[in-house]
Write a sequence for this structure.
């Protein structure tokens, strides 16, 4: 690659974040030891019912043994975890935690015989699974807020794919990649900006930027293969960035759970279609029932109080039932706590007639920020917190729905989507919550809804489900984006 040209625009490297790994490590160790103290407290709390003869040395053995976990996290690249999405980080953390605690139990049973208090170890495991991801998230948010998170990245290719990747990196700073410049062989785009990032010149300038950036992202779809300077093989060989990420020219395929494979010197990508594997269907059903059963029992008092309030606000049935599309095209009954007046359709038509400016919002989102059909106070409360969906836990237990999946939509809503997307939705069980609900909620229009549901179906895994469930709790508690 020629390096005769020089950047026309000055490049400012992102501030160093050398202590970011130590911040994540410190948060991890603190969370692990807090989990131990909570586990110890829980074990002592149940001691009258489950007495044992272990002493402080067994407790201290647990406190020391669990410090193996940060060592495993380090080997898995979680300090700091740049270039890892939240689902992958969650997967690595949970597998590492189960492996370390399983190893400690095996060591105690087979070798040391009594070094650890097994009750404290089990209680600590439960708290570690909860607290360490929260501590990591908090530490990362702290670093991002102070501009001390991430590494500078050079983008090679300023076409549609490169710009889309840059938008994602700017929108999701937790990935830890900060674009500082674009390189592109099209002279027409030099000395301009793409997504607010300068396009400084041709690909031949890449060596000049190696001291400014720790990573480069090559968007193959944006490179002109007819240009000798854009020869992919030579380009990849000559780049000397510590990290090199290649975005293949593959549109609309799964992006999670893709592994590189060496096929006798040829590079191949294995794309796992998890939803086609029967064992994954069984695992998803087991997860649904294990989580939905206690949630349904706990929700009964909430539904009882809400039902009384609904009946006092608007005489009539307290539950609302609508037939919607399910898996394989089967029709299922979707139940909700009623949040609208019985003559809601009439009220909606009258409102849209009097407020034509709201018709476009209804057409794009099938929601209104000020919906005349919603019952005062109780209806608004249930919809903002999504508690009106609680009766659908029974549908999950019946196997008609899943905890996580594309939401079952009314027919008038589904008809606005393409035939291909409607067919894709029928391959999975509809869900009580989904990627759309935690990402956009009421702000997502039809295009956003289709993109997020498609991503979920093509990238499904139990880890993605667990991540969405965790995010759902936050979205519901904060009532973010719902109306």
């Amino acid at each position: 690659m020629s390096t005769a040209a020089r950047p026309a625009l000055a490049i400012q490297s992102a501030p160093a974040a050398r202590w970011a790994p130590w911040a994540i490590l410190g948060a991890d160790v603190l969370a692990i030891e807090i989990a131990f103290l909570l586990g110890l407290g829980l074990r002592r709390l149940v001691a009258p019912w489950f007495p044992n003869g272990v002493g402080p040395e067994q407790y201290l053995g647990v406190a020391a043994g669990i410090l193996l976990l940060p060592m495993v996290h380090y080997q898995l690249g979680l300090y700091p975890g740049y270039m890892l999405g939240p689902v992958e980080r969650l997967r690595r953390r949970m597998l590492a935690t189960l492996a370390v605690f399983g190893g400690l139990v095996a060591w105690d049973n087979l070798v040391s015989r009594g070094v650890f208090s097994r009750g404290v170890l089990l209680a600590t495991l439960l708290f570690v699974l909860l607290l360490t991801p929260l501590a990591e998230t908090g530490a990362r948010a702290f670093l991002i807020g102070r501009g001390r998170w991430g590494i500078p990245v050079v983008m090679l290719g300023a076409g549609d794919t490169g710009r889309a990747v840059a938008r994602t990196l700017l929108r999701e700073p937790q990935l830890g990649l900060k674009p500082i410049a674009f390189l592109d062989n099209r002279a027409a785009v030099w000395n301009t900006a793409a997504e607010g990032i300068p396009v400084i010149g041709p690909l031949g300038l890449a060596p000049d930027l190696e001291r400014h950036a720790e990573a480069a992202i090559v968007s193959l779809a944006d490179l002109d293969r007819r240009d000798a300077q854009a020869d992919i093989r030579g380009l990849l060989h000559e780049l000397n960035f510590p990290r090199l990420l290649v975005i293949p020219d593959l549109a609309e395929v799964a992006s999670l759970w893709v592994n590189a494979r060496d096929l006798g010197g040829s590079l191949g990508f294995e794309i796992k279609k998890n939803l086609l594997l029967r064992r994954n269907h069984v695992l998803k059903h087991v997860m649904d029932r294990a989580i939905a059963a206690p949630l349904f029992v706990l929700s009964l008092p909430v539904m009882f109080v809400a039902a009384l309030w609904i009946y006092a606000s608007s005489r009539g049935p307290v539950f609302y039932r609508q037939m919607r599309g399910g898996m394989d095209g089967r029709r299922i009954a979707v139940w909700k706590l009623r949040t609208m007046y019985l003559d809601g359709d009439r009220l909606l038509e009258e409102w849209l007639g009097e407020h034509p400016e709201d018709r476009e919002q209804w057409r794009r989102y099938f929601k209104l920020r000020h919906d005349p059909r919603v019952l005062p106070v109780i209806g608004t409360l249930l919809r903002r917190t999504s508690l009106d969906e609680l009766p659908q836990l029974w549908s999950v237990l019946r196997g008609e729905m899943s905890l996580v999946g594309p939401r079952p939509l009314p027919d008038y809503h589904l008809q606005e989507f393409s035939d291909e997307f409607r067919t894709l939705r029928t391959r999975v069980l509809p869900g009580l919550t989904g990627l759309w609900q935690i990402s956009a909620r009421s702000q997502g229009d039809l295009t956003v809804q289709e993109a997020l549901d498609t991503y979920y179906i093509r990238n499904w895994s139990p880890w993605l489900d667990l991540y969405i469930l965790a995010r759902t709790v936050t979205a519901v508690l904060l009532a973010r984006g719902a109306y």
The two ends are 55 Å apart (CA to CA).
